[in-house]
């Protein structure tokens, strides 16, 4: 009886090892498949992004330059028309315009970094 229990225990351990090995292989295959699919998606995204930048990169750059120019125009108009009588008007105008220009420049830098 004890002998049979030892054989059953031995066979159960063998079965557990086989299941573990099989599961490990399946997990490895699944992981490899997922990584392959993610790499395909990344490649596809990068190709599409390059296509878009190739087609519209110059237009986007023109838009950023135009926005920057308009920000300077707004700064001048605020200084010219709206700021008389405001205490610290130059400081307010400069901070507002600098914030606007800084936001435009950050967006432009992000775009340029993506184009590289």
Counting helices, strands and paired strands, the structural category is: mainly alpha
Query: What's the helix count?
Result: 2
Oligomer: single chain
Number of strands: 0
* Low-confidence blocks of residues: none
Distance between the termini: 74 Å
Q: Domain count, please report it.
A: 1
Order of helices and strands: HH
Helix fraction by DSSP (H/I, runs of at least 4)? over 70%
- Rg is 32 Å
Shape: elongated
Q: Which band does the percent of strand residues land in?
A: under 5%
Look at the structure and give the mean pLDDT.
Answer: 73
Largest sheet: none
Describe this structure in words.
- This protein has helices spanning 2-82, 89-115.
- The radius of gyration is 32 Å and the shape is elongated.
- The mean pLDDT is 73.
- It starts with a helix and ends with a helix.
- It has one domain.
- It has 116 residues and is mainly alpha-helical.
- The chain is 93% helix and 0% strand.
- It contains two helices and no strands.
Quick overview:
The protein has 116 residues and is mainly alpha-helical. The protein has one domain. It is 93% helix and 0% strand.
List the helices and strands and how they pair.
Layout: H1 2-82, H2 89-115
What key attributes describe this structure?
116 residues; mainly alpha; 93% helix; 0% strand; elongated
């Amino acid at each position: 009886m004890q002998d049979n229990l030892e054989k059953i225990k031995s066979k159960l351990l063998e079965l557990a090892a086989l299941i573990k090995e099989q599961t490990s292989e399946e997990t490895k295959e699944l992981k490899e498949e997922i990584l392959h699919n993610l790499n395909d998606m990344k490649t596809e995204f990068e190709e599409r992004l390059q296509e878009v930048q190739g087609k519209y990169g110059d237009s986007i750059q023109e838009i950023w330059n135009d926005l920057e120019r308009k920000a300077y125009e707004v700064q001048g108009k605020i200084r010219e028309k709206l700021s008389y009588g405001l205490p610290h008007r130059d400081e307010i105008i400069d901070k507002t315009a600098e914030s606007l220009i800084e936001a435009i420049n950050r967006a432009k830098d992000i775009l340029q970094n993506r184009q590289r």
